[in-house]
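Lab notes, practical 5.
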Amino acid sequence: VDTACSSSLVAMHHAVKALRDGECEVALAGGVNLICSPWNTLSFQKAGMLSPDAVCRTFDAEANGYARGEGAGLLLLKPLDAAQADGDTIWGVIRGTAVNHGGAASSLTAPNPRAQSDLIFRACTDAGVAPSTLDYIEAHGTGTALGDPIEVEALQDAFRRLAAHFREDPARKPWCGLGSVKTNIGHLEGAAGVAGLIKVLL
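Output from the prediction step:
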């Protein structure tokens, strides 16, 4: 699966769907990012995506781009009842997933806030997760002055819609933690999603 930064999470979505549909009993999903040549770094730098000082300052007033990182992450997924029956160590439960397309945007580095909001709304409704039950969100949070505010805007819009869907008072939960593993290990690009998920599990 190659969907750029979402690759490992799209792979996980397909794995969950295969498990739900009975296509397999166990699935492996994850991602790997290695920097084996300078070409992508040069291209990303020319596009203004990389931090000049190689520091990722997610949700920071001094955010100026992201730092590239290398790494790999892999999840072994199986139905909860099967994991319990087998006596497996269970690190977390995936209650819902969703995938969509970013749609029209002004550039590669300018995500579409409505598409992001729709995705969050679908994932939460698929999982039956009301906004008042959320204490923390691991965001994409690349540390760009353009992308981070769009992501927050999409989250706010999704929370408003979810509150209406679940018939909750939006003021019932006035806060939710927000973070990004990229400030610690850089942007793992194709493995970024699984890195963030492993952070949450740990």
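Observations recorded by the TA: Helices lie at 7-20, 39-46, 80-85, 113-127, 147-165, 182-185, 192-201. The chain has seven helices and four strands.
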